[in-house]
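Hi R.,

Here's the chain you asked about this morning:
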Amino acid sequence: MNTDSSLLGSELELQQQEEIYQQLLMQTVGKMPTENPESKVIRPQPGLCVKTVTEPDKQKIFVNICQSPAVPLPPEISRDELVDLLQSEDPSGFRVPMSLGEPHTETDNNSKACTAYDVVINQEFFQKCQTDPLYQQFVILVSLEGLENKYNLELSRDWKVLKNRKFLGSLVDQNIRTKSRPVIQELQPEFSSTAAAKRPEFSLLVEPPAGDPEFLIAEIKLPGVRSSRSLVLDVGEDRLQLTARPSLYHLDIFHPFSIEQESSVAQFNCNTQILTVTMPVVSS
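And here is the predicted structure, written out as tokens:
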């Protein structure tokens, strides 16, 4: 394995590389395909209807939580794990695959205009939500958060599930991606350098998300590391090794890509304490 140990230098060198790094990221964005990723049309099936309001203007909102077997099933989570998750500071750590539809204008029982959104989740997971109020509460919560993030809304958590109504208005077909964004997480290292060194949390992201990969981007969280001078990084053709001295972190992973080692760029953000490594993928 050929490695390049020169990616990380002094803080001054990293600052000088910042413009080059940003240019590389811009090149990455510029090379992304402009066409839509592979997708297919699904017809949401009725599920349940949730009534809430926007904050602070109290505009009436209806959320149709629909179901479809075409939406991926979320990871298995027990009831106890779900309770712990809801009580944690960051319940967003558990992801529920869902398709968020565009807003559509409808009329309520008083013939007044209102806005409705369609949220589609996996059919099997929806059935679990129907039989357990805790799962239903959780899926409503993540649906509201998803709509807030996508449409820049603030929705009241004082919601109401409508009885004897599975949806409001008319359900609209939605396009969903047939290829999910290829994220590789929690790969096992071949070995750890020392018993005291911890394995840092990290993720590997492929860009573009569809089609032939052009870049592999590693984001490695290094809490407690204040300077890149304590980091030693080696990038091989199919391997990434990182050591944070003295015996603080050690990471050694293989990945299924061939990397252009000499064109790879690394940046350590002292504020977020995250190391980002951008590695061009050798075209096949």
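One quick note: The longest strand covers residues 113-122.

Cheers,
M.
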